[in-house]
Hints:
Elements: E1 4-9, E2 14-20, H1 27-32, E3 40-46, H2 51-63, E4 67-73, H3 75-78, H4 81-94, E5 101-106, H5 108-120, E6 126-131, H6 134-139, E7 147-149, E8 152-156, E9 164-168, H7 177-194, H8 196-200, H9 202-210, H10 214-233, H11 247-257, H12 264-282, H13 287-299, H14 311-325, E10 330-336, E11 339-344, H15 347-361
Parallel strand pairs: 2-9, 3-4, 3-5, 5-6, 6-9
Antiparallel strand pairs: 1-2, 7-8, 10-11
Amino acid sequence: MTIRRKLLNFGTFSTDYRIGSGAFGELSKMLAGAVGRPCRALAVTGKDVDDDVLITVRRSLIDAGYRVEEVSFDEDAAGSLSSASSLFERLASAGVTSEDLIVGVGAAGICSLACFAARTWCDGASCALIPTTLDAMVLFPTQMAPLSVPGDPAAVSVTPQVSLMVCDLDLVRGCDASANGMGSALICAAYLSESRRCWEGLGDAVLGMREGGEIAFVDAICTAQTARLNTVKSASPSARRAFMYGQTTARALAACLGDAKAPAYRLFAEGMRFEARLAVDVCEFSVDEMFAQDDHLEDLGIEELSFDIEPDAFVGAIRAERFRRSNRFQFALPKNPGIIRLATVDDDVLERHARAFLASRRP
């Protein structure tokens, strides 16, 4: 299949988004156009990235005319502000300027670290991303995974400005939910935020993805990118908060579960399920659409999670998480497919739904 090219125009900048199986075959040519004149490139890589991928990236950068240096991080460690400080030191020692290229190669945490460094180094350097996981292919270039500081696991972020993204679907096709779950949930949320027509087409997209179809993956990811771009560019401040959907509850569940917490994709899916139920009460979201979301998540291999949490602890964690981000107690909730807006949730509604939700999840 021909590599699909999608130009994502953010107004003040644009991202050249390339996706398809075998995309690395044209990587050198793509990287050559990421800056005006190739000179230096610093590759920020994940320590768990396959050696064949790293060799391909190094050779492609050299063939494109770059002098290449590389720094590696553990995926878990990459999500901290201290890692960004270490990366800045490496950028300084390598003599990287605003006219050079910073390349992120790896999962979402690695790509986020590269994005953050590129956005802030020398008032902005060019950034290219080569994501190796489905969630990173969906998350960028519209959003980064926040960096953590002591006392807050998701405190620091910027809006990415990515010049080039190259997504080789050979890295993700055929992977199970443990690898693709977060990306699949993000696609589901993006379809819900875009339009009713888009949402009604998710069933066919899910079926194609489950079968590992290349065209199905390309179409689903590109549709998600369009939806997420529309969220970022929306004239409504409330609509631009649609990325919050599911996240408040997911982080609250993580806080409640502590060391026993489940994988992030399962917590995010539970957040979507719970907040959809709030939306039925608060925003008159259709019960049928709520159950349709449940079905899509199940079809994507993301089953319901069992846990035993006290309602007071759960509600307290939700309040703490929300007030850590805002002075107002609001959720981003769907009103209809294509409309996700900030909404205030009354105490009694939250507590009633929390009790029912937790009762349904007890093992």
